[in-house]
Amino acid sequence: MKNNLANWPAPKNITALSTTRLFGYSQAPYDSNNMGLHVGDNEHHVLQNRQQLRELLNLPGEPQWLTQTHSTHCVIVEEDPDRNADAAISRSKNHPLVILTADCLPIMLCNVQGTEVAAVHAGWKGLAHGIIENTLEKMESSPTDVLAWIGPSICQNCYEVGEEVYQTFTHTYPLSKQGFKPVNGKWLANLPLIAEIILAAKGIKGVYQSGLCTFELKNELYSYRRTAQTGRIATLIWFNDQPQD
Length: 245
What we know:
This protein is an alpha+beta fold. It contains 5 helices and 13 strands. The protein has a single domain (13-239), classed as 4-Layer Sandwich (CNF1/YfiH-like putative cysteine hydrolases).
């Protein structure tokens, strides 16, 4: 299984990565390493993919699979049994966090002390309506101690949006104007940059981008914009067995 390891200076006891669509059990059009149970794929194949994921990564527990609905709801997994959420926080070694995407942003957060992690699913609606802020408010860590990694997602060149999206963002986040380019009466939106702008406004200086586009990397990653009936990659963050820095 090939994975995209996070390119950020997280503490040694924290691992974050994104899976690819390669080396799994799912058949076309979900071929082959689909992690999403909600997209019409054969359930048995998805569960095989998830089992393979746990074994190959030697995860300390079952990932905390969320029912993502583009909300701004964040849960602390040790305290709240609800999994209808688009962000999760953990301070326990037993609960790997996971986000499913096929163009949206997977945003992984950790503190420099290596004691708290969070995972955020941010499409444009969640991003515009405060999913990042809601997550940071529930974290115990000071924003100045938080690092962020933005995993594979659709890039600006491939993400055309209408005036509604532009107005929604620029009204709430005036600085987000730099994340839009006009094209043929519409806009090309740079969601990873807009997320970085929001994170920076909350005091997070260490923001790292994967730079991988889900739409362009058609052999490695799923893209809903490219093919509506498709699978989902998983982006995970968890506490490994390495000693803290």
